[in-house]
């Protein structure tokens, strides 16, 4: 009986303790409540608005859509590497063929140029007459009689139609007083070799005469010395005699051909005659220097 009473008393005490503890935790929870997590409320889905936005986005993307990039080929497979090597070889072969074609074209152009040069060199010969064009600022209107044509050495001639007057004529006395006293036609033969005197005439019997064309002869110091013996008699017998101081010269015939191609000279006649040398060859302007 005593044991039963002890068990009942222990149960009451245990129940009282449990109730006290429970009340204590309930009080703390009421004083300091635990914060509850905020769960976002999803917006209401509007099917019509979503459709409109999708259409607008498609319209904008049509004008600003980036180009599709082609993925670079991977040359990992043996077949791809072989194909790449073939393409490189084909490109090099095409480049080599193009270079050969260019070289062949250059050779053909050079051959045609050499043919033109050979033709012009055959056309240009001793006794040929050249007429300077307006593009030739130095010799405009001048007529040149070619005295020597050489493909490897100097080519030179004399201007026939630039008469000396004034102070320039007086300076000719330093070359030959007899020439001035004989009242012969004295002209400027060219800007080079001013100490060289050339006598153009039509008398093959004069000393030192060399025939350049049909009835046209040319001489130098031997003719000049003969002229100094009796200038009046020589000029009386040769009224068309011309004394020229200086000459025109080119390094070679190729340089002259180049100037003809540039339009600086025209070949007016391939052979000098008394008509085109003494009559038709008028002085366009007098040389005063």
From TrEMBL:
Region of interest (Disordered), residue spans: 50-115
Low complexity bias: start-end ranges: 86-107
Residues spanning the membrane: none
InterPro entries reported in the protein's UniProt record: AlgH-like (IPR003774)
Any coiled-coil regions, as ranges: none
Pfam families: DUF179
Domain of life: Eukaryota
Xref: PANTHER family: PTHR31984:SF16, TRANSPORTER, PUTATIVE (DUF179)-RELATED
Name of the protein described by the UniProt record: Uncharacterized protein
